[in-house]
């Protein structure tokens, strides 16, 4: 591995995470120049067995989130291997783990123990549901997609719930970890002390639902599955044409007027405005197929 010249060059990251959220975060840090040492148990990271697809008999899932890292196999139940893991954590600038809360305490690799001999360490813990209720539940993306409500928003209005095709909340949590670590490193530069960064998938999920969570909390609106339609904009979806579906987006009144001009319907925006009521344009914000809540009606 060549010496990095990235912005995080010179930082040592001890990666005790596996599967997706943690490895994704450490991969981003490695991409920015940090030296990442990935610690795997004797059986390896679970994603090594998640195949197909493969490249040279190695899972592409594993390859996709573990580039630019060094790797070491350590059995934490072996005294010598455990001592090596503890020494790695003592030397590290950043430690990232995604065991269940408290899971590393028996190996003396938890934050309090590591920070006792490495007060500058930035230690990031990733869990499914935090350290309160649900702390003992495993943090799988599919579970969080269901609990957060994302699956109730995905699919056709009269169809079953669907998971997103990608493990979106694992990835989002990994991004949140990397942001938290960078902020903690900035804090350390000013104060000389490390911090404990805690991220959980459910909180990342609720953050990632942004406009839906805001609509529920601030507007009292319960979202529901709408297919490809948008709760606040229309048109903003694939629409049928003679030779297939075409994605049509009108994100504001100006775009809606230009769309109507292209469709040779220059009077439509004013007709729509008249249907909704006096007061000006509605364009891509509220259209004739939206109800009084700004939501397309259920079929």
From TrEMBL:
Organism superkingdom: Bacteria
Keywords: Transferase
InterPro entries per UniProt: CoA-transferase_III_domain, CoA-Trfase_fam_III, CoA-Trfase_III_dom3_sf, CoA-Trfase_III_dom_1_sf
Record's keyword annotation contains Ribonucleoprotein: no
UniProt entry tagged with the keyword tRNA-binding: no
MF GO annotations: transferase activity
SUPFAM superfamilies linked to this entry: CoA-transferase family III (CaiB/BaiF)
PANTHER family: SUCCINATE--HYDROXYMETHYLGLUTARATE COA-TRANSFERASE
Protein name: CaiB/BaiF CoA transferase family protein
Protein's organism: Micromonospora azadirachtae
């Amino acid at each position: 591995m060549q010496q990095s010249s990235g912005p995080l060059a010179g930082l040592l990251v001890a990666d005790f995470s596996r599967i997706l959220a943690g490895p994704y975060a450490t991969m981003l840090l490695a991409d920015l120049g940090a030296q990442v040492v990935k610690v795997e148990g004797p059986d390896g990271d679970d994603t090594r067995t998640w195949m197909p697809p493969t490249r040279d008999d190695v899972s592409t899932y594993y390859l996709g989130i573990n580039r630019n890292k060094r790797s070491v196999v350590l059995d934490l139940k072996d005294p010598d291997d455990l001592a090596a893991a503890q020494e790695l954590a003592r030397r590290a600038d950043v430690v990232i783990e995604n065991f269940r809360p408290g899971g590393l305490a028996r190996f003396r690799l938890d934050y309090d123990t590591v920070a006792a001999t490495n007060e500058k360490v930035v230690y990031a813990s990733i869990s499914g549901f935090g350290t309160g209720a649900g702390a003992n539940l495993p943090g799988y993306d599919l579970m969080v997609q269901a609990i957060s409500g994302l699956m109730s928003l995905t699919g056709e209005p009269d169809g079953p719930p669907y998971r997103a095709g990608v493990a979106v909340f694992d990835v989002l949590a990994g991004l949140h970890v990397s942001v938290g670590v960078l902020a903690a490193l900035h804090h350390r530069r000013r104060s000389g002390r490390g911090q404990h960064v805690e991220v959980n998938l459910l909180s990342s999920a609720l953050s990632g639902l942004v406009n839906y969570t805001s609509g529920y909390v601030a507007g009292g609106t319960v979202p529901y599955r709408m297919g490809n339609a948008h709760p606040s904009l229309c048109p903003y979806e694939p629409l049928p044409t003679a030779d297939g579906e075409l994605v049509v987006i009108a994100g504001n009144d100006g775009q809606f007027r230009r769309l109507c001009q292209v469709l040779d319907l220059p009077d439509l925006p004013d007709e729509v405005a008249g249907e909704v009521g006096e007061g000006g344009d509605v364009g891509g914000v509220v259209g004739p197929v939206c109800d009084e809540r700004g939501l397309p009606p259920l079929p």
